[in-house]
Specification:
The protein is of the alpha+beta class and 311 residues long. The protein is built from 7 helices and 8 strands, in the order ββββββαββαααααα. It has helices at residues 92-95, 127-136, 184-228, 230-267, 272-280, 283-286, 293-310; strands at residues 2-11, 27-32, 35-39, 57-59, 65-72, 83-91, 102-108, 111-122. The radius of gyration is 51 Å and the shape is elongated. The protein starts with a strand and ends with a helix.
Length: 311
């Protein structure tokens, strides 16, 4: 037999109008092949992360699938019953090859609403084995638990007591070598070894597959939270506004620069006379210093003549 114990769930949103106020009390229900197995106690105030510590449910591992559901109580004023948060399906054959605890994705009308985690444990063998064991125990037991005696009734003769079948001819020895038939113990050991090798391969592949599944589930969970979170929409709107403001500022700066260039071209146009005057200013520097001598002599002669006429 197998024991199933629901541990908790992670829901993506609230499913009632009063859920955001902290009054959502979810519980879990387990169903096997259309027959209810059991349900947990509601976690009061569990909101979107309920946890349960109820006794495990006993199920038959040879019976198909498990259906796990999460419910919350509806508003009694509106006349609503229990509200389904989501349900997930687990195959018992695949479940025995996966580690415990195990997570099942919850969905509601095609919408992913969260995850439910539960632990499983094998407590005994298949009940069919116990039925065969009970049937064999009907024989009278002797010393050591073995049957004391077997029934001594002879087998009936199909041809009658008076008729006797012809005896079979004696066995003839052949020259062909007989193949070695392995014993039952060897076959069992080989089967156990193969099973052990398969388990090792599965254990080596499971961590990578589990890590990939957890990463994808975590990414999906974050994306769903961002979609339902109003802060994410506000951040997107703020980023868009900032980008628009930056573009407007850049356009204004470009327009101002163009206006300044136009004003400068109107006030200070390039004149051809200025371009010609610049090389002419360099000519006095090229004149030698000896040219200043005649000017001094002429001034001295003028002074002497002036004094002569005055006297």
């Amino acid at each position: 037999m197998m024991e199933i114990r629901c541990q908790g769930a992670n829901l993506t949103r609230f499913f009632t109008a009063l859920g955001s106020l902290g009054t959502q009390s979810p519980w879990a229900e387990v169903e096997q092949d259309g027959q209810p197995v059991g349900r947990t106690q509601p976690h009061k105030g569990g909101d979107r992360n309920p946890r349960w510590d109820d006794p495990p449910f006993v199920i038959d591992p040879a019976r198909g699938h498990l259906i796990l559901r999460v419910f919350v109580p509806g508003a009694g004023v509106l006349g609503q019953g229990n509200i389904l948060c989501g349900e997930g399906v687990a195959d018992l054959r695949d479940l025995q090859q996966e580690p415990s605890p195990h997570m099942v994705a919850l969905q509601k009308k095609g919408e992913a609403t969260g995850f439910l985690s539960f632990a499983w444990h094998i407590t005994a063998q298949d009940p069919k084995i116990f039925a065969h064991a009970a049937a064999r125990s009907a024989a009278v037991e002797g010393n050591g638990g073995y049957p004391a005696a077997l029934p001594q009734t002879p087998y009936p003769q199909p041809c009658g007591r008076e008729q006797v079948r012809q005896e079979l001819p004696p066995a003839q020895h052949s020259n062909h070598q007989q193949e070695h038939i392995p014993k039952r113990e060897q076959l069992q050991q080989q089967g156990h070894q193969r099973h052990h090798d398969q388990l090792q391969r599965q254990q080596q592949q499971q961590p990578q597959a589990a890590a990939d599944q957890q990463n994808t589930r975590h990414i999906q969970y974050q994306q769903q939270q961002q979609q339902h979170d109003p802060r994410h929409h506000q951040q997107q709107q703020q980023q868009q506004k900032q980008q628009q403001q930056q573009q407007q500022q850049q356009q204004q700066v470009q327009q101002r620069q163009q206006q300044q260039q136009q004003v400068q071209q109107r006030q200070y146009p390039l004149q051809p006379e200025q371009s010609l005057q610049q090389p002419q200013q360099k000519l006095p520097h090229a004149v030698p210093a000896a040219s200043s001598a005649p000017t001094m002599e002429t001034s001295w002669l003028q002074l002497r003549l002036f004094l002569f006429y005055c006297c």
